[in-house]
Amino acid sequence: MEQTSKLAGLVRRLQQFLLVREIRIAVSAFRYVLYALILRRVRRFSGDDRNLGANTLDYNFKKIGKSLHVDNRIHMLARPVTAISYVATQLPFAKTLSIGPRAEGELLALAGYGFSWSNIHGLDLFSYSPRIDVGDMHAMPYPDSSFDVIVCGWTLGYSDNRPKALAEMVRVLKPGGILAIGESYHSKTYEEGAVYHGYELGSRDRINQLDEIVAPIKDNILNWYFRQEATEEDYRREITAIVGVFSIKK
Hints:
Largest sheet: 7 strands, mixed
Strand content: 15-25%
Number of strands: 9
Shape: globular
Strand order of the largest sheet: 5-3-2-6-7-9-8
């Protein structure tokens, strides 16, 4: 028993090296080459896409390579989550789901914060990784009350049915579980964004306040732990993150 405890402690200390960006990128890139290029395990969602915003799957699928080394936004969610005493005392055991990670960088960062690698799962519309399931956040392939923590970073903006996506998050979270949501402040209208990208992308619903984002599940919010809003002035200073961390009741 004592040897097992020491081994677990050593693994947790080694995981902390994954918070070093260069190490995380190297591990993520190696696993991408192994699973995507050598083993050819790339899969794409082929189910009902009526709840997805325009061009969501194709746009994000093209960003897999970029996501191997651009995953820093996860820190905006992981830091406040791991500061919660309920989470901090359960880190090695907490069942954790990352929605829309694209690549494994986000999952590796969560491991760096102390979550057990075997308890971290991802869900996306495509995957090359054995840790990322292929599926739609509007109809998640998990039983009720499966997870202690859900991290949904910059993903809801691709939903044309945000109430359904949020209801699914509540469903698969355990009572008292933690939901961390990150979004971006949109100064452009949907039409202006389409001109900027050269095509329509994501949801037409441009909501820039936390209370509006979580309105469909406001009665399920047990306790707010962290809130960060963004304004037009913040956007001019290139501070666009909207972050909310709260617990869920059922």
